Amino acid sequence: MTRAPEILRPKATLEEAARKILETRYGGFPVVDEEGRLLGLLQVEELLPRPENVPFSDVEALQLFGEWVDEGTLQEIYRRYQSTPVEAVMLKEIPRVHPEDPLGKALQVLLTTEVRHLPVVDQEDKVVGILTRSDILKLILRRQ
């Protein structure tokens, strides 16, 4: 795991989060309170429009923050980034592991859920690390 990972605060704006993602080249960050307890997870996927089925139809369209968008609305998306806090779009019900958990448990979570950045927390739910699929791959290659 990566120890003492970079974090976001819940009141940070999506613009701040997007800039941090681009600067660090990380795909997501745990969101923590002032004591370092896990509140949620923000991944790049939460910042990008995604295809959704239009109700009562077979048509797919892009949706972001619960609203339908098209390529002409990039200005509006940026405006929303400037004013929307991370806590409004972060994943709140997320799996987590503890440092003493077997690696197989973390691998199963990373392979069977939408979580790409798995928080590692202590007994007080404070973030002590983060695990990614790349971390697992590094471990496999190191063992060869």
UniProtKB/TrEMBL annotation:
UniProt feature coiled coil, ranges: none
Entry keyword annotation includes Nucleus: no
Record-annotated CBS domain positions: 1-59, 90-144
UniProtKB keywords: CBS domain
Domain of life: Bacteria
Keyword RNA-binding assigned: no
Database matches in SMART domains: CBS
PANTHER family, A to Z: CBS DOMAIN-CONTAINING PROTEIN, CBS DOMAIN-CONTAINING PROTEIN CBSX3, MITOCHONDRIAL
Protein name: Inosine-5'-monophosphate dehydrogenase related protein IX
Organism: Thermus aquaticus (strain ATCC BAA-2747 / Y51MC23)
Native organism taxonomy: Bacteria, Thermotogati, Deinococcota, Deinococci, Thermales
